[in-house]
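User: I'm new to structure prediction. If I give you an amino acid sequence, what do you actually give back? Let's try with this one:
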Amino acid sequence: MADSYPKPFSNKIELDKNKVLGRGNSVVYSGSYERHPVAVKRIVVDTLSKEDREVKTQVRLDHDNVLKILTVEQDADFRYIVLELCTGTLADVCNNKYQGPDLPSDCTVLIEIATGLQYIHSKKLIHRDIKPENILISLDGRIKLSDFGLCKETSTNHTYLVSGPLKGTGIWMAQEMLNISVTDSTPIKGSIQSDIFSAGCVFFYFVTRGIHPFGEDNLIAGNIIKDTPVNFDKLNKGSFSFDVIRQMLRHQPNERIDLEQVLDQLKYQLTLQPGYNRLANVVRRMSQKSAISYGIDIYNLPFKEVRNRDTQRVDRFYFGKTPLASNSSMQKTILIVGDRGSGKSNLINAMANYVLGVEWKDDFRFKLIDEDHNQMDQVIFYHLNKKEGSRIGCPLTIVDAPTFTGHQDNDEKIYLRIKDCFRSSNEIEKINAICIVIYSFHSTLTQEQRNWISHIRNIFRDIEDEIRLLVTYDENCLPDMRTVIEADEIFGPLDLPHYYFFNNLNFFPTNTPDHNTYKRTFFDISVKNFAKFFFHLETLLFNLNPAI
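Assistant: Good question. You get back a string of structure tokens that encode the predicted 3D arrangement of the chain. For your 548 residues, that looks like this:
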């Protein structure tokens, strides 16, 4: 990106000139880039000097807590800077104007600010304009440091030369910056400790929701110079942030703590907060983030992989400590089968999130099935061993069968693979339930569906009692019960508890406020159906045996 900007203007950038997000030396519009929502800053080419320096700085930065430039393009008249779209600022939050997604805990917000600032400093830069208006909130509720117009490069020891006139926003500046004479052009040595002071003021302002530690309006700069934080007693001494802010606001730069110490203290305070040891949060900290999808961070579960001796392909994944042999009777195993378009993979991913205790408010989800693992011709075993805080009370093995395609020869091979798998497996001898995933968009089962469902039925004894229909549906329509009624004709009359309904996509929603209540309703319905499914699974008195 930094090596190739600006690029010639392309049709990948679209502006909505009716939605102006900001004006100044440039105009910022809401728009899209490669069909993703973005902010687009449009600058007249003849007025590029300041913005050009800012862009050259910002394109070097790539961090989750720094506002990203996605691309820079230019035509004869304008330069277009495409930025991540954000929903508000920290100032909006403190002024009760914020209408974006829910923020994480206050401690997490401060950690994200400090993390972003530490990254900027690691690139031998000082920001010089840290204030609530320049701390943005992304579509997924993540903190983003922005506005690099006053950024300067620093030396190896994080110092730089600075002279008048004053640059920055006075009420957020450290005393050593405020004391620079407006007319004195003699350079003095500055340091990144000035950014730390500014961040301390912002921390205080945020946790008190709008109170500046050094007073009100035109008195603030004078109080900073005199080291008189007149409002500091308005921060509760028992606050998680009290000590760290006090140390960030030391009058002398060399007495302020560094950002590494700030983060150490805040992260320790985070461990003391409610919910820190909730299973979903514990697993998140031990998992690797794979992508950001629709405003939600996606994490790959930390599996131990085991290869098949014959094929040398990975076919077993273990999560958590393997239970003792004496507890093997608690183990529950389910086989999940479905055809193309049924939503089987999404359902399995949603099931894993339910088991790990993921809640609607969480800004992350877990992915159990990875595209590399979901081989079309392979039966794959996911072993989720019991962990404290799980929503279910037993170890769970999910057996993910290859997807039926509707082609007779291919589906016959899948049927045989499932039989062979349970005939030869030393670990999976019994199945507690067969889960048939059916998408209810169609009002009737196809002949291909009837065929593969009948194949599955023929593998296991007593299937009439332990068949489970996992019915998926789109959020724009309710499940079509005619699909379920037709399944009855194949399996025989079943009691209603054998049917469970899931809107899988709402386990991976955007956290934007649009339609949040609507989407949460479907999320809650799926959670209730998972709870009902696992209650019935855990109370089963016997297992199914392969009829082979």
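You can read the tokens as a compact description of the fold. Here is one thing that stands out. The CA atoms of residues 149 and 535 lie 58 Å apart.
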